[in-house]
Amino acid sequence: MKIPAMPRLFAKKTPTLAGKKSFWQTLMKQKVLLFMSLPFVIHVIIFKYIPIWGWVLAFQNYWPGKSIFDQIWVGFDNFKWLFRDPVFYQVLRNTLAMSIIQLAFGMVSSIILALIINEVRLVFFKKTAQTISYLPHFISWVVAANLIRDALSTDGGIVNEILLKLHIIKEPIMFLGIPQLFWWIIGASHVWKEVGWGAIIYLAAIASVDPNLYEAATIDGAGRLRRIWHVTLPSIQPIIVILLVMNMGYLLSSGFEQQYLLQNGRVIDYARVFTIYELDYGIKMMRYSFATAVGIFRSVVSLVLVFGANYVAKLLGQERLL
Amino acid sequence: MRRRRLLLLLLMVLTVTAASVMVSAQKTKTFTVFLSEPLPDYPGSTIVGDIIEKETGVKLQREYLVGDLETKVGLMIASGELPDMLTAAHFTSLFKDAGMLIPLNDLVEKHAPNIKRLYAKHWEQLKQEDGNVYWLPIQAIPYDTDDSRYPELGFFINKKVLKEAGWPKIKTLDEYFELIENYMKKHPRINGERTIGYVTLFDSWRSFATTNVPQHLLGYPNEGEFVPVLEAGKFVVRQYHTSNAAKAYYQKLNEMYNKGVVDKETFVLNYDQYIEKLSSGRVLGTFNQYWQVQEAQQILLRDDPESIFIPFPVVLDETIEEYQRDVPYIQATQGLAITTACKDPVGAIKFLDYLIREETQHLVQWGIKGQHYEVDENGHFYRTEEQLKLFRDPDWVRDVFGGPYFYNSFPNLRGIDKNGNSFMPDRQPHLIYADSHESEKEVMDAYGIKAFTEFYNKPRPRKYYPLWTITIPAGSPAHIEQTRMKDVLNAYVPRMVMSRTRDFEKVWAEYVKAISPLMKEQIKVYQEQIDWRMENW
């Protein structure tokens, strides 16, 4: 589906006349801002850059309690093992599939919810609906997983009961026992849990849309749907793109608790994602080096995905993250 | 005048408090300890705990297990953040491999006469390759062994089924399912809800409750993933996952699944849901180890005593002699250990020495004499009806009495002491029958037995027993193979049971093909260790 041309809202910055000289001037001018951002820069360095040193583990046969000089260096053995493991490809497929399902349905549903809530006139109803929709976000997955298990149970679970009462099915369906369904259960439960929470950011973006635009559109004879299509959506488009690019980075790291708690032996081939794989074949076996190797693989792929998405956004002339 | 007196009083109170604070500051030692059992946090004050704290001056800062132990252990070792003492079930040796435990030999020799005396029988088994002892097994059997009301494992069947069928003795798998099927036909609903014929537990690491069964059908006790078979005077490690017993077992489950006897959602239940189903009273049968169904059994005894579960030693066919009960053993490969992070190992071992002596054990397990138990003219311990009632309330026992906080994770004594008393109240020989619930007694009377263990044969002595306490070296090829094998079991067992009956052979063939190449390395490790144990124990 192609979205009709949207008006660009933000005028391009007029290029400054300043050359090299004014760099220091700008710096001095913005010193307060720089000072304010300093703690965050330090935070990022300590918690994101220094731990990269730990990557050396991937090239060792690491054993805890020994100094780095006593460790055995094994080169790329851990990576070779990883790429030769048939389980790895299964894990890659599952992680990508579930992440994409979650990302696509999660974003679309949040945007739709935000649009709908925004159109509601009754303030009381609006607030209540919004609160109820984001409440599940605050339930831990441990509790949520048990709720989902009970709801999908064949033994009096509400989903089966309703379907039976409506005569849509004759026999209760064991939803959690069908491997091919697992991805979709993960997707659906993700939407249920995060839809309201995800909508908040879009609601905030919608709130900042200039009311004049709506008035102008109304005068031009645009109905509600037209206004959503031609004013609201184009206005929040930059946010959507930026969130999409950011989320691309999490494609390979998403999901642990959800899959871990909802999986069972029957669906393991479709449920195991990278984080569970690292746990089962890495940390639980004290193969820290191997777990690190998997982590490196994920980081590298994530970087490629983020830059790739960013590049595509640039090609399409959209707002970019970087 | 009055004011002055008040002031004086205040001053006195102040000095007394200050003094007591100083005294206690001098005397109390604090040890941090990680315990691999999931208990709620220590309530701060319990009957048993207060006495122990007063007598030793030791305060424990406990961290109980939350979530998955294997993960927790992995993270603890990776981070190097250790408590003073820890238990980690069968992952204890990983801490030793990482050089994080201190040897106990000298400490015990110099500072712990009780440990030395009470563990003497086991001491050789505890020595590692370097000749050092790094942990104290949670249970020591210093004198004779004792017996219990329930066996370690069994095919459990609802009392209602037995009663209606006229108390039959169940021997084979076919008989067992026939009884369940017949009862189910007659009673499709129990308490207004659908009757569930058979449930099998398949939740993550607890799935052994399903996959261990073939070895028991062949008459073996719980050895673990493999069984040592006596061949020409030597124990040879064999696999049972593709045995005839395994095939017959999965085929039977498949047949029963398609008949609607096996619960449709049995493979997706987690442990909580499993216990919930069992304690509803509408489940007719399940296989498990007793400790995994005990919680449900206790709920049933309280709320629905006619639906309690009775264990039977079920085997594949009449020709098989069963020896399913455990040879009494201590878990030599795991226990409580003192870590390198402990600043006062002498204090720690003295505390453990205090815990293990007979007096403390009587306090932890029986309670205070005259208050929680009585002694008859023969010197035998017993509890009055009122005392029994107190101890039947698990919440009171845990939160007010406090015994369990010094029990499962700390060194304990088991068996019969010199006076003929069992260290464990529910194993007190002359009370096993007497202290049973009325509903349990009805079953025992009907079969003419005094404990459900009497359905079972006496175990065959096996010196190495059991195989499952052998730890496979972390990250080794055998370890990876083990994980892969469990993956295959996880994927194929539900498929075999849930496939259509005519597809069973096909799925079974696929399963055999998938699992067969994944056992060689493990068998090698187990064989080496069994040989070592036969030689050195």
Write the layout of secondary structure elements.
The complex is a heterodimer of chains A (322) and B (537).
Chain A: H1 21-29, H2 31-49, E1 60-61, E2 72-73, H3 77-84, H4 86-119, H5 123-134, H6 141-152, H7 158-165, H8 179-207, H9 211-219, H10 224-248, H11 257-262, H12 268-271, H13 274-281, H14 288-315
Antiparallel strand pairs in A: 1-2
Helix pairs in contact in A: 3-14, 4-8, 4-10, 5-8, 9-10, 10-14, 13-14
Chain B: H1 2-27, E1 29-35, H2 47-56, E2 58-64, H3 69-79, E3 85-87, H4 92-97, H5 105-111, H6 113-118, H7 123-126, E4 135-136, E5 139-140, E6 153-158, H8 159-164, H9 173-186, E7 189-190, E8 193-194, E9 196-199, H10 208-211, H11 213-217, E10 226-231, E11 234-239, H12 244-258, H13 271-278, E12 283-289, H14 290-303, E13 309-312, E14 336-338, H15 345-356, H16 358-365, E15 374-375, E16 381-382, H17 385-391, H18 394-401, E17 412-413, H19 438-447, H20 477-498, H21 504-515, H22 520-536
Parallel strand pairs in B: 1-2, 1-3, 5-17, 9-12
Antiparallel strand pairs in B: 3-14, 4-14, 6-12, 6-13, 7-8, 10-11, 15-16
Helix pairs in contact in B: 12-20, 20-21, 20-22
State the helix count of chain B.
Answer: 22
- Strand-residue fraction of chain B? 5-15%
CATH superfamily caption of the largest domain in chain B? Periplasmic binding protein-like II
Oligomer: heterodimer
Question: What structural category do the secondary elements of chain B indicate?
Answer: alpha/beta
Biggest sheet strand line-up of chain B: 2-1-3-14-4
What is the overall number of helices of chain A? Answer: 14
- Total number of distinct structural domains of chain A: 1
What average pLDDT do the residues of chain B reach? 90
User: For this structure, what is the CATH homologous superfamily of chain A?
Assistant: MetI-like
Level-2 CATH architecture of the largest domain in chain B: 3-Layer(aba) Sandwich
Low-confidence stretches of chain A are none
